[in-house]
Each structure stands twice: as C-alpha cells, then as structure tokens.
User: What shape does this take?
Amino acid sequence: MLICVLASKLNNLKTVKAMENFHFHKELIAACGMSCGVCIAYLREKNPCPGCRKRTEDKPKYCITCRIANCEHLEKTESKFCFDCTRFPCQRIKQLDARYRKNYRTSLIENLRQIQSNGIETFLQLETIKQTCPFCQKTLSVHRNFCLHCKEMVNVTE
Ligand code: SF4
Ligand code: SF4
Ligand SMILES: [Zn+2]
Assistant: This one.
C-alpha cells in the first residue's frame, strides 16, 4: 500500500523537486537493507561516515565490526544483499530489524523485500521521496524525528 502511494507521487511536481536533491545510489544501501544515505553518521558535517559499502576505517567501530557486513554467507550471494542468502532472514537481521522498527520507524527487512521485488532503481526512487523533507526538500535522517535542516517534526513512515 505504502509503495503504491509513494509510486503515485513520482509524477507530481514536488517529486521532481525531490529528485533534484537525489543523492541515493546503490552503494549507499547496505547488505542488511539499511539506507546509509539517511544515517545520522553519513549526514553529519564533521567526519561523516562514507557508508557501509565503503570498506574503509573512517566509520564508527560498530559498523566496521558489523556481523552482517562481515558475514561469511554474504560473500556467497550474487547481489551482496541479505535477501539472496539461504538463511534470510537470519537472527542477526531479525534483531536489527526489530531495533529499527522500534526506535526508527523503519523495517530493514521490508527495505530488502522491496529491493528484491521491485529492483534497486525503484527502491532508490521511492527512498528519495520517502526521505525528502516535505517542508524544505532536504534529506531526512532515519535516526531523527525532525528535519536536520528546517527542524520541522516529521514521521517518515506515514
Ligand atoms: S554508520 Fe553504519 S549505517 Fe551509518 S552510514 Fe556508516 S556504515 Fe552506514
Ligand atoms: S541473512 Fe544473515 S546469514 Fe545471510 S548473509 Fe545476511 S547476515 Fe549473513
Ligand atoms: Zn526540512
């Protein structure tokens, strides 16, 4: 239902404006379904994290040592997304998903299922719409319930 509502917005003017701010790309979607482009660590001005797919040391330790990003089974998948794994959704993914649903109104498993069903390009377009502030058109953070730029309260899941 949410996908249909969001997809219908693809044609309106506001969406066109949002697409101009587009900065999501495939490399910003982690194997677990996390959209690093809306992570507060990626969006911060000082020492921003380059995202999960960049295997560098300039990111928080919990992401460098992440058991999902470093999972041995991930290497065996063709897409390098967890949905391609025979163990999906494994306990690690379920726990992370539960934490994100509880704290950040986002389901990483749902993100993965959308990518699996509709393809990464459609997911990136919908993610851009979903994560664009309706007040100032800048990118929202999944980790905050207000816009980092204009400070308006937002709820990205509704
Ligand atoms: S801190 Fe983790 S989730 Fe956030 S952008 Fe970096 S790798 Fe992605
Ligand atoms: S679903 Fe679980 S076991 Fe499979 S690649 Fe992802 S983290 Fe590893
Ligand atoms: Zn805003």
